[in-house]
Amino acid sequence: MDGDVADLSALSQLAKQKDAWLMVDDAHGMAALGHTGAGICEAQAVTQHDVQILMGTLGKGFGTAGAFVAGSTELIDYLTNFARPYIYTTAMPASIAAATLASLNIIKTEPQRRTHLNDLIAHFRKEAALLGFNLMTSHTAIQPLLVGDAEQALAISNELKQQGIMVTAIRPPTVPQGTSRLRITLSAAHSVDHVDRLLSALNGLADIYPSIKKLDNTHGVSS
Ligand SMILES: Cc1ncc(COP(=O)(O)O)c(C=O)c1O
Asked: Is 159 in the pocket of ligand 1 (CB under 6 A)?
């Protein structure tokens, strides 16, 4: 919800101290992070020695549906034999598996998409900061703008929808009270023009909803 990235080395060290395993849910990192798009583990150069259970979804960066768990042979054998939802659920359709394989190929062989996405993120952050928006510290594709009030976040999201821009309003209980936000999600399919159109729409709405801009915002991010 913040677009932030966990420090896996620190978490892995802590897990080792406590004789625990570390499980990473990299739903938002797969395809977007790492040199070949393998996600947060690749980006932070951690291995199975540090992260014993890695799960990822296929419904986000892969653009298909389903999910996977990666880990040691023992872990996977265990899940194959004892994970009831896995055993008693219909397998992924072959068409989805084929589409996922095609996505995997694109993710691995077309790093220019990640370069483009990172350029869009940098462009959005630079321009949004100049316009005085309430940016969070995220350097990933999820760029939340803090609004504070839940009703206002929803109203801005609806106004953007009227203008053909889809930005969801994230409200409690998903985030703490007083930290409702617009969750802007950039993708490699966007262009600089798209980002500029979003910025201009947000700037227009700031007259009616000044809380999306820094100077006027009285809500801090609560813990
Ligand atoms: C962190 C995280 N994990 C898992 C999921 C579940 O994704 P899916 O239902 O596409 O497998 C989501 C979906 O929003 C998510 O944000």
From this structure: no
- Angstrom distance (rounded) from CA 41 to CA 108: 15
Residue ranges matching CATH 3.90.1150.10 in the chain: 112-212
> Structure pTM?
0.90
Q: What is the 117 CA–ligand 1 centroid distance (Å)?
A: 20
What single DSSP character describes residue 37?
S
Instruction: Tell me, using a 6 A CB cutoff, whether residue 27 lines ligand 1.
Output: yes
CA 65 to ligand 1: nearest atom: 10
Q: Look up the CATH architecture of domain 112-212.
A: Alpha-Beta Complex (3.90)
Q: With a 6 A CB cut-off, is 59 part of the ligand 1 pocket?
A: yes
In tens, the pLDDT along 112-154 reads 999 999 999 999 999 999 999 999 999 999 999 999 999 999 9
From residue 144, how far is each of 27, 62, 98, 107 by CA, in Å? 17, 22, 33, 25
Within 8 A by CB and 6+ apart from 72, the residues are 48, 52
CATH architecture of 8-109: 3-Layer(aba) Sandwich (3.40)
Atom of ligand 1 nearest to the CA of 66: 11
